[in-house]
Amino acid sequence: MPKNLKQLSESPVRLTGGHRLCPGCGEPIAVRQILMATEDPVLVANATGCLEVSTTIFPYTAWNVPWIHIAFENAAAAASGLEAMYVSLKNQGKIDPDQNYKFVAFAGDGGTYDIGFQALSGAVERRHSFVYVCLNNQAYMNTGVQRSSASPLGAHTTTSPAGRVIPGKTMVQKDLTECMVAHDMPYVAQSIPGRWRDLVGKAEKAFATEGPSFINVLTPCPLGWLCDPSETVDISMLAADTCIWPLYEVENGEYKITYKPKEKKPVEEFLKRQGRFKHLFKGEDGAEIIKGIQEYTDRKWEALLKKAGEA
Amino acid sequence: MGKVMPLEGNNAIAEAMRQINPDVVAAYPITPSTEIVQTFAKFVADGKVTTNFVAVESEHSAMSACTAAAAAGGRVMNATSANGLALMWEILYITASLRQPVVLNLVNRALSGNINIHCDHSDGMGARDSGWIQIYGENAQEGYDNCIQCVAISEREDVRLPSMNCIDGFFVSHAYEMVEVEEDAAVQEWIGPYKPVRPLLDIKNPYTVGPLDLWDYYFEHKRNQLSAYPNAKEAIIEEGKRFGQAFGREYGLMECVDLEDAEVAVVALGSTAGMCKDVVADLRSKGVKAGLLKLRVFRPFPDAEIVAALRNCKAVAVFDRAASYGASYGPLYSEVAAAMYTRGANVPCVNIIYGLGGREIRPDQIADVYGKLNDIKTTGQPADPVSYVGVRG
Ligand SMILES: Cc1ncc(C[n+]2csc(CCOP(=O)(O)OP(=O)(O)O)c2C)c(N)n1
Question: A82 and chain B: CB distance < 8 Å anywhere?
């Protein structure tokens, strides 16, 4: 049973204020919500990226939990190492057997979909007990908004710029959540910071899972998405309302849609609020791409409904 | 009392690992070190160790998991070779910077390309600046002994640096030798229990490991790290003595063979040094004042000790089983020559590059080198500063 807001507000502060993430960044919102979802001690492994660099500028740290950063592509491997040592020491009777430690890996979409995918896949196959959270802002934000394989079709990024002949990113995003489902994980989910009950509930399930679990959180980035910092939460909700980012979970292979918009909004509603898609609203080429995004979104949504037995 | 038994170099190291019984081993197979991991995995499967063995999906993840596991607060080991070490390269620096006492058994092999599975030192030399202690063993016995010593050296509170226990691929890793294996309990007692320093699993004292470190502190942190290397040198000497007291085989930074009155001397690492010993004995019986400096510790580099051992020679050859592409000399030569120059030891030194990709080196070729050194000594004529021994064309 997810906690209510009052209970959540009384949770220990595990990521403090005073970090240096941008105003309106979706990442700390998601991280705080996720870390509120367990009472157990938590150890965090963080990949290189916005969250890592902005929360630990030496000699400061915004973390009230044991935290390690090693490199960019290895959050899952680092979490494997932490968890492996915990299991070893626990089996040897060197750690209180009644105390349950939890392990979380946080990484951006770059550190998850691209460079860190191998380590993630490996760690999941080995069945380490940890929660892997992808803070998915759909580009490499820390290095200046370069495209990743999570960047959606048509998005303007600094390495898929919208120009005179190429209108932003020409490929659709990788469906990583489904890749993780294909790993036969006990728990896989997608969420957004805007629906806190959804996200915290999923994190609770993830923490309660024996073995690996994966949550893909769409975390808007005002700087990279070219939107107003005050709109992070709204835009994340629009992603769910347009079904561009469906909220669902897969528990031991069972699909469940956790949020079904009463009325599925057209993708334009999501796209037009962000400067990264601005060029799509000028001219026929852009309209074609928007049509393509709508078709892709519909196809994926239909497929999801079927998997969840709702179609 | 130890037991003498025939063991391959790899199995000698696996045996040491069994006795050390690390808390976590995370590894990925690569020839010629594969057997270490395989043999150890069997120990795990048979319940002979309490280690949590993590069969990771790559060397990059192996070293990442090892580094995190060590930071979590326990004893950690690993093994690799060549491209495996190269894939760890990014993390090697981080392990050292985070001061985690991971021990990596490195079975030296040539780096691609072209792909070659046989021995040279290009892997270890490529990682020479990563901050790891590097100890080169001559044979299986030393591989075994050094593995145990690496644990003690790395874990010393004034050191806390990772170390590589290096043996030559195939020449040592796959060759049977009689190895004296000590009692399990004696090894355990000698290394002592693991003493974690600020472990991450101490959840009451949360701690941020590996933060962003900018211009205002990074340099101080690196300076701080640099100050650990002189300590490491002392630790290697002290632990080598302590090892000798316990097991009768004493170790130091290097082994000097007939160097006191040597006129011509060779500097070499690893199994080649063993062959040089035979050549020196042979030359000595013929009245040649030959000597050998078998370098055991390449990192931290023992400048002063090397110069002290060589400064009275009349000609020296430094053997490099690795090339440094684009540089004029091999890596070991460059450092020996720099040490000699800095300390005013004006001894003619030549560089011998040999044995790349497992090319054999024979005693007669080593004897030839001593012959050339004799020429330099008598004629005073400078020789080619670099020569490639055993290569066609
Ligand atoms: C091996 C390696 N390659 C490249 C980089 C440079 N780099 C640091 S963070 C980053 C992008 C991070 O993007 P993402 O994972 O999406 O996280 P975000 O910053 O957007 O939260 C890159 C490319 C690096 N640190 N290491």
Answer: yes
Residues 154-183 of A with CB under 8 A from B: none
Residues with CB under 6 A from ligand 1: A 48-51, 72, 107-111, 135, 137, 140-143, 148
Q: Would you give the DSSP letter of residue A202?
A: H
Q: Which of A67, A17, A74 lies closest to A41 in space, CA to CA?
A: A67
Chain A residues closer than 8 Å to B212 by CB: 52-54, 56-58
| pTM: predicted TM-score of the whole model, two decimal places | 0.97
A189 to chain B, minimum CA–CA distance in Å? 24
Query: Distance, in angstroms, between B200 CA and closest chain A CA?
Result: 5
CA distances from A84 to B71, B98, B188, B286 (A): 12, 19, 22, 59
Structure ipTM? 0.97
Taking the alpha carbons of B386, B343, B255, B129 in that order, is the dihedral positive or negative?
negative
Q: In tens digits, what is the pLDDT along chain B, a chain of 393 residues?
A: 799 999 999 999 999 999 999 999 999 999 999 999 999 999 999 999 999 999 999 999 999 999 999 999 999 999 999 999 999 999 999 999 999 999 999 999 999 999 999 999 999 999 999 999 999 999 999 999 999 999 999 999 999 999 999 999 999 999 999 999 999 999 999 999 999 999 999 999 999 999 999 999 999 999 999 999 999 999 999 999 999 999 999 999 999 999 999 999 999 999 999 999 999 999 999 999 999 999 999 999 999 999 999 999 999 999 999 999 999 999 999 999 999 999 999 999 999 999 999 999 999 999 999 999 999 999 988 789 999 999 997
Distance CA B102, CA B92 (A): 10
Task: In whole angstroms, give the CA distance from residue B25 to residue B22.
Answer: 7
State the closest ligand 1 atom to the C-alpha of A142, by its place in the atom list counted from 1.
Answer: 19
